[in-house]
Structure to design on (554 residues):
């Protein structure tokens, strides 16, 4: 056995560490079960779009389909990917291999949010836009896509942070989706502005015919709020990652 | 090579609620190989977690190269850790895993450094198999490779020989010894006494969260050999053998257990080991079993702590 003689190390560059961490998190999130499960939800959205196109009032039918997409498909898909992004590393006691590195602490939560969004957009936001197209409601397809994509981004921040903070993050997240993002958002009007679904609805509502069931404000404000939620989630996850103790 | 301490723990305690895992431990470690010895649950892994900044001491301070490993990101470039857990990234090959570590440490040629590190621990860098398909011993060597790929000056190895066969153990012990002689600060934990005997000349002994002893391993070994010990002997002539051993002052007390078992108390286990066979031969007694009753680590540590 010869002794390792490493090339002298400089401080790691962000353009080296970010892609390396991103690939690692993305790869660990990509399991067949998740792809099939979330893919099925996305396919169901497109199928519902086909049925909506055959309805007597396709625009009205698409309201229901997009409510399903924004209230159920996007949050559940992001919950599944987001809580596992760092939560799996904690559970498998693998975080130690990333923590003891000269890499600024914000990078791992940030790439976890990015990787989760990367997976959620093609599997949920694209089907939402495609559903609008196949229903013949082309005029709302872009807004449907944008609303779902930004909602996925915001939920990614929330659920990545939850994955680090809570042991059973998926269950906490499920309770959050059911009780807050659905029950509270749709029944207690004043609470809509404190929900992701309310602000993604605001973006969807900017399309012709105001096709959203809920809206918390203007589309511009929705854009700002949803990005802010994603960033805030990433910051909260960073605080936890920095202060937490590792096994 | 400077002999200044690389790792310093001062009055370090760690508790989890009412459970005290580490209690008021102080030591410093310089270049060379130091073994942290203690039975399971002694607080070794908790101590290692604090040395690497993975956990914050409830009380006291830890410094690595004069810096706080929990607060100072830069010092992590000088630390390599082999954690105790067996888990590794499931989707990565050995080369991808070690290369990732090299990248995160900012090495300019991560793939080449990863190859070198894997070759150093006797693994094939071209092996494309994902890590879960590796044997436990191979995974253990991958963990050692990732700990040393960036050539750290402080290596913290938590039970690194677990799961290795004798040949692999010998190779890694030789590697650790060489790294120590090159001026690296290598801290190796183990709960296997014989393992430590081969690894390090300097030992820190932890028991029940406390530092029970520190110093040269030979001194500790002598201390352990000299302690009073109880030995179980099974023979076909117990009375004759007991009488002869008492006559020779090789034992201080004898208890007969059943028809053929003796329990001998001796103040000098080494002398008894040399005496018992010739005495048995003289008295025409067959020895079917000679077994120390308290030679396990717990017994050793109990003695070290209580003496």
């Amino acid at each position: 056995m010869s002794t390792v003689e490493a090339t002298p190390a400089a401080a790691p560059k962000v353009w080296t560490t970010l892609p390396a961490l991103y690939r690692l998190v993305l790869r660990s999130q990509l399991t067949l079960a998740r792809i099939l499960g979330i893919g099925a939800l996305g396919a169901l959205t497109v199928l519902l779009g086909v049925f909506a196109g055959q309805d007597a009032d396709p625009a009205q039918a698409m309201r229901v389909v997009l409510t399903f997409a924004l209230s159920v498909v996007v949050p559940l898909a992001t919950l599944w990917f987001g809580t596992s992004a760092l939560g799996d590393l904690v559970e498998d006691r693998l975080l130690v291999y990333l923590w003891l590195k000269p890499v600024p602490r914000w990078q791992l939560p940030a790439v976890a949010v990015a990787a989760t969004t990367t997976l959620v957009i093609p599997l949920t936001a694209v089907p939402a836009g495609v559903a609008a197209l196949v229903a013949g409601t082309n005029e709302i397809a872009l807004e449907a896509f944008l609303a779902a994509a930004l909602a996925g981004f915001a939920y990614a921040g929330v659920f990545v942070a939850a994955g680090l903070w809570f042991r059973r993050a998926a269950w906490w997240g499920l309770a959050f989706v059911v009780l807050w993002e659905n029950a509270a958002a749709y029944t207690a009007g004043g609470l809509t502005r404190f929900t992701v679904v309310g602000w993604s609805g605001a973006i969807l509502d900017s399309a012709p015919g105001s096709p959203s069931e809920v809206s918390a404000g203007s589309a511009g404000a929705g854009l700002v709020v949803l990005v802010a939620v994603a960033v805030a989630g990433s910051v909260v996850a960073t605080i936890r990652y920095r202060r937490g103790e590792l096994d | 090579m400077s002999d200044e301490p690389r790792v310093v723990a001062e009055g370090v305690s760690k508790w989890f609620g009412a459970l005290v895992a580490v209690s008021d431990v102080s030591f410093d470690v310089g270049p060379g190989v130091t073994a942290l010895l203690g039975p399971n649950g002694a607080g070794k892994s908790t101590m290692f977690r604090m040395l690497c900044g993975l956990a914050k001491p409830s009380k006291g301070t830890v410094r690595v190269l004069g810096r706080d490993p929990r607060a100072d990101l830069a010092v992590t470039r000088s630390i390599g850790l082999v954690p105790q857990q067996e888990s590794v990234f499931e989707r990565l090959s050995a080369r991808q895993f070690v290369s990732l570590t090299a990248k995160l440490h900012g090495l300019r040629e991560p793939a080449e450094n990863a190859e070198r590190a894997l070759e150093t621990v006797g693994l094939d860098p071209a092996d494309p198999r994902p890590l879960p398909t590796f044997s436990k011993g191979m995974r253990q060597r991958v963990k050692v490779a990732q700990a040393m790929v960036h050539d750290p000056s402080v290596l913290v190895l938590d039970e690194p020989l677990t799961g290795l066969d004798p040949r692999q153990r010998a190779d890694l012990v030789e590697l650790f010894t060489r790294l120590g002689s090159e001026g690296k600060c290598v801290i190796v934990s183990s709960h296997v006494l014989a393992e430590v005997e081969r690894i390090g000349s300097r030992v820190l002994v932890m028991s029940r969260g406390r530092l029970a002893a520190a110093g040269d391993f030979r001194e500790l070994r002598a201390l352990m050999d000299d302690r009073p010990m109880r030995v179980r002997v099974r023979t076909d002539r117990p009375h004759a053998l007991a009488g002869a051993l008492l006559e020779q002052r090789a034992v201080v007390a004898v208890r007969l257990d059943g028809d053929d078992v003796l329990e001998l108390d001796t103040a000098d286990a080494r002398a008894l080991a040399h005496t018992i066979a010739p005495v048995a031969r003289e008295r025409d007694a067959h020895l079917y079993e000679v077994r120390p009753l308290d030679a396990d680590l717990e017994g050793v540590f109990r003695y070290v702590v209580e003496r």
User: Anything to note?
Assistant: Chain A has one domain: 14-243. Chain A has a mean pLDDT of 92. Chain A touches chain B at residues 1-13, 16-17, 20-21, 24, 27-28, 92-94, 96-105, 245-247 (CB under 8 Å). Chain A has nine helices and no strands.
